[in-house]
């Protein structure tokens, strides 16, 4: 069953059970998908991540149902839009034990996306909240998102635009809602998944490109000192694509070579290609 702000007319609005484990235990996953001209961008990759995340949580996501719902919902928005699809394990008895036969709940929503958020610069403040790289939830798009919510609030209270999250070993992990890239020693580097990083869709696209603006793109662990010495820093996610970082904890970052702009151009070409009915430029 799909709930989609009343926009899907072939079924009733979904009444979520009070015992749904997504509500009671954050037992579920979500994906946020960019829609351009009625077409969801990188849908196969989002579904693949959803399936992998569900396997980590030990249930099977109903991918055919999710795909059909996403396509139908995306078709309701002719412009740039943000589509969110949520899959929970479904209702269960009280307690923590996994239901023997999960019956997943699926629901989604869509809303116009403000393109002015794309490439809007941001400052970062290092959060006291740490990303737990030992937790299986660090590599899935879990509904348990309050660490990110509180880290962002902490950063805003400090006068920054977003949070920089380190992991429990003190290595760089991510921002509150994006993957981090930094130019360090002539390489455009992004932390590996093992450091508590969500395998982002835009992140994967940049890694697949291999080189951006003449720089090799690679996964490697980053320290706060690496960021302090970086000649460019930016974050990525599926909606905003690229967000340039202009300062970290009050220290200015200047991207004189325009690396972030080159990364944006690559991702935007892929979005435009899919919106026109073609395939992504980088697979």
From TrEMBL:
Keywords: Amino-acid biosynthesis, Aminotransferase, Branched-chain amino acid biosynthesis, Pyridoxal phosphate, Transferase. One of its GO terms (biological process) is amino acid biosynthetic process. It comes from the Bacteria. It holds the Pfam family Aminotran_4. Pathway: Amino-acid biosynthesis; L-leucine biosynthesis; L-leucine from 3-methyl-2-oxobutanoate: step 4/4; Amino-acid biosynthesis; L-isoleucine biosynthesis; L-isoleucine from 2-oxobutanoate: step 4/4; Amino-acid biosynthesis; L-valine biosynthesis; L-valine from pyruvate: step 4/4. Its EC number is 2.6.1.42. GO terms for cellular component: cytosol. It catalyses: L-isoleucine + 2-oxoglutarate = (S)-3-methyl-2-oxopentanoate + L-glutamate; L-leucine + 2-oxoglutarate = 4-methyl-2-oxopentanoate + L-glutamate; L-valine + 2-oxoglutarate = 3-methyl-2-oxobutanoate + L-glutamate. Acts on leucine, isoleucine and valine. This is Probable branched-chain-amino-acid aminotransferase. It comes from Methylobrevis albus.
């Amino acid at each position: 069953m799909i709930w989609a702000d009343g926009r899907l007319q072939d079924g009733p609005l979904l009444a979520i059970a009070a015992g749904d484990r997504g509500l009671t235990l954050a037992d579920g996953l979500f994906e946020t998908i960019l829609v351009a001209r009625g077409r969801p961008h990188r849908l196969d990759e989002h579904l693949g991540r959803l399936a992998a995340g569900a396997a980590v949580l030990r249930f099977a996501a109903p991918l055919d149902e999710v795909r059909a719902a996403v396509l139908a919902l995306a078709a309701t928005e002719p412009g740039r839009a943000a589509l969110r699809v949520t899959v929970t394990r479904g209702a269960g008895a009280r307690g923590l034990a996994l239901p023997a036969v999960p019956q997943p709940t699926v629901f989604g929503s869509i809303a116009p996306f403000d393109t002015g958020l794309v490439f809007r610069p941001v400052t970062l403040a290092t959060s006291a909240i740490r990303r737990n790289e030992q937790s299986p939830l660090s590599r899935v798009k879990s509904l348990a998102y309050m660490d990110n919510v509180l880290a962002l609030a902490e950063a805003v209270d400090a006068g920054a635009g977003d949070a920089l999250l380190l992991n429990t070993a003190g290595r760089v992990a991510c921002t509150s809602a994006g993957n981090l890239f930094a130019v360090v020693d002539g390489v455009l580097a992004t932390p590996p998944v093992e450091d508590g990083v969500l395998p982002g869709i835009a992140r994967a696209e940049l890694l697949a490109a291999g080189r951006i603006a003449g720089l090799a793109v690679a996964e490697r662990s980053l320290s706060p000192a690496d960021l302090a010495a970086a000649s460019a820093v930016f974050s990525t996610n599926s909606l905003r694509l690229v967000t340039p970082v202009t300062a970290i904890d009050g220290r200015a970052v200047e991207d004189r070579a325009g690396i972030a702009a080159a990364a944006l151009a690559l991702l935007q070409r892929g979005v435009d290609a899919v919106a026109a009915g073609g395939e992504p430029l980088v697979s």
